[in-house]
Amino acid sequence: ALISTGIGAIIVLVGELVGWLVNLFDTISETEKRQEELNEIMDEGSKAYAKARGEIEGYITKIEKFNGTKKQEKELVKELNSKYGEALGYYDSLAQWKDILKTKGEEYCQMLLKEAEAQAILSKYTEAYIALVEARNKKAADYGHWYTTKAGDLERKREAIADAQETADYWMEEYKRKMAEAQSIKIEGNIGGHVDPKSGHRSTGGKKG
Asked: What residues contact 175, with CB distance under 8 A and at least 6 apart?
């Protein structure tokens, strides 16, 4: 009986040790995973920034080297108004567009960077929320191992739900933070919400002259 009791105690201790190691590795794995996800999000923002910055620099160079007719200038102005008007305002000349792209181009690119990061974070939140729902719906026994008890399984389910909730909350807060940063850039730089004056509505864009 004493031998049986001793063996039982050893099994319990081994089980607890295995459980502790599993939790430790899970924590390390989760930390590494989150860092990888943050890196992916930053990459998405960088791609959006680089694309927007490249396009703006291309237009600035195109304007500086422009030596076309009035009709060709009008067509290029129309193209710029179509592409950037809602964000940066509507203008009548390439000189105005050159000025606005140089003065507001960086803020515009930074805004797109933040919005791209926010969109990537929103995707992470969606994944985390789905995982949270799945954690809630799983049976406690699904969290068990050969060395666990029913009470232990219930505790692990509660821990899994809490972890999933923490992850979902984390991404939602990050999403709100990034969107707030993008909104701040919009407000400070007067970016977005501009209306084409030719539509008959007042434009909040640059003064035309």
From this structure: 118, 121, 122, 125
pLDDT for the residue numbered 5: 52
Task: Return the DSSP state at 190.
Answer: T
**87: Cβ contacts below 8 Å, ≥ 6 apart:** 108, 191, 192, 194
3-state helix, strand, coil in the chain (%, to 5): 85, 0, 15
- Kind and range of the H or E run holding 8: helix 2-64
φ, ψ dihedrals at 9, nearest 5°: -65, -40
Entry field: residues in the chain: 209
DSSP state of 207: P
Residue 60, pLDDT above cutoff 60: yes
Quick count: other Cβ atoms within 10 Å of Cβ 24?
A: 10
Q: What is the mean pLDDT of residues 59-74?
A: 97
Provide the 10 A C-beta neighbour count for residue 160. Answer: 20
pLDDT digit string, tens, across residues 115-154: 999 999 999 999 999 999 999 999 998 888 777 788 889 9
Could you tell me if 91 and 208 are in contact, meaning their C-beta atoms sit under 8 angstroms apart? yes
- pLDDT tens per residue across span 144-174: 877 778 888 999 999 999 999 999 999 999 9
Alpha-carbon distance 31 to 25, whole Å?
10
pLDDT of 113 > 90? The answer is: yes
- HSE, CB side, 13 Å, CA atoms: give it for residue 207: 1
